[in-house]
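USER: Write out one fold?

ASSISTANT:
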Amino acid sequence: MSLFLHKSNFLLRTIYPEFLWRLDDSEPVIYLTFDDGPIPDITEFALEQLDKYAAQATFFCIGDNVRKHTDIFYNVIEAGHAIGNHTYNHLNGWKTDDETYLKNVYKAQDELRVATTLFRPPYGRIRRSQALDLLDTHSIVMWDVLSGDFDTSLSPQTCLRKTIQYTEPGSIVVFHDSLKAWPNMRYVLPRMLAHFAERGYEFRAVPQLIYA
């Protein structure tokens, strides 16, 4: 049985209103995001599927994976997708002191070598003190819909059904281009893209914010 919420609830959005949970719902637009890459074959599969629908997405990359798979990272950039910071070592902010956490975030930024104002905390877990520091220069991007592709107890069919069920105009949807999520993601992503494309939806990247 899955132990996570597929849909971010009102309480979470109320407690952390300064975080980005969803975007404008006046148009049929979905904001797909991918966490934890780049990973050989898996990230490339995601890029191929997105290309079939002229879909743009946001890839929240782990700095150490960028270091190990730089060529794939550049493929993401060349395909026109947005890049976000996901720390260097996928740190859990609740279990990491502020200084270590923030250094890890900025180390990842150095490895990305592209300007980005988008940050997503691994596991969605970040202390308020850490967030306050980052919010000076970053948009902390959470999600409206968590596909659950990382949950090995969740069948691909259930993962697809739940993701489609909860996705609405303006939804920020999370997938993972990771080894753990691969069995579900490879089933769900192409079918979700086809489902919403047939209904006239567009897929866009989360916009970068401009700070003074």
About this structure: Residues 147 and 163 are 5 Å apart (CA to CA). The radius of gyration is 16 Å. DSSP finds eight helices and eight strands in the chain. The helical segments are 10-15, 42-52, 63-68, 70-78, 98-112, 128-134, 156-166, 182-197.
